[in-house]
Amino acid sequence: MTTYAGQVRGDGLRVAIVCARFNDLITERLLAGARDGLQRHGVDGSSITVAWAPGAFELPLVAQRLAASGEFDAVIALGAVIRGATGHYEHVAGECAGGLQRAALDTGVPVAFGVLTTDSVEQALERAGCKAGNKGYEAAETALEMADLLRQLPKRRP
Ligand code: INI
After folding, report:
1. Which one, of 47, 48, 46, 55, lies nearest residue 27 by Cα?
2. What is the DSSP string of 102-127?
3. Dihedral sign computed on CA atoms, order 102, 105, 106, 110
4. Could you give the 3-state DSSP secondary structure of residue 79?
5. How does pLDDT run across 44-58, given as a tens digit for each residue?
6. What is the pLDDT of residues 10-45, one digit of tens each?
7. Which of 21, 82, 92, 96 to probe ligand 1 with, by most ligand atoms within 8 A of CB?
8. Is the CB of 57 under 6 A from ligand 1?
9. Helix (H) or strand (E) holding 20
10. Is 79 close to ligand 1, i.e. is its CB under 6 Å away?
């Protein structure tokens, strides 16, 4: 039997973060959590690249470009889609999630989903470092685990 399991280890890894500016009261906190998560697990500060996108809807295109560049072992997407703030919540949140998954599947580079989808700003704040942990920190750990797992798994056929 062969078993593969990734470890949350960041030494030697290069990671890109794409962060949405919309709701930046929240996304700045997610970004701080993600950076903290990466550095606590051994990613060198100089190996972290941050790109800002206007909103969650734009995250997939930026994540795809970063993932396809060959310069990163993993990408982390951060955003906050808040139902109270928009009538097109479902479209923004759905296209964001689907597009990020597609970016990962198309490139073979893990794209961690650090996008909050909440009913209110209060709920988003809770998940951005206040009461309920920090989704950016969790996404950083996921990115590192997936990068390590993919490094172990059999390579794609050319
Ligand atoms: N973008 C977000 O990141 N979060 C939101 O809650 C949001 N709302 O409320 O509309 C939002 N909208 C902007 C969207 O992501 C695009 O930037 C915009 O539609 C231009 O394409």
Report:
1. 55
2. HHHHHHSS-EEEEEEEESSHHHHHHT
3. positive
4. strand
5. 999 999 999 999 999
6. 999 999 999 999 999 999 999 999 999 999 999 999
7. 92
8. yes
9. strand 15-20
10. yes
Beta bridge partners of 81: 117
pLDDT digits (tens, 9 = 90+) for 114-125: 999 999 999 999
| Residue whose CA is at the smallest distance from ligand 1 atom 21 | 57
Establish whether residue 121 lines the binding site of ligand 1, counting it when its CB lies within 6 angstroms of any ligand atom: no
pLDDT of residue 131: 66
Sheet holding 111-118, edge to edge: 48-53, 15-20, 74-82, 111-118
Q: What confidence score (pLDDT) does residue 90 get?
A: 87
Q: How far apart are CA 105 and CA 125, in angstroms?
A: 30
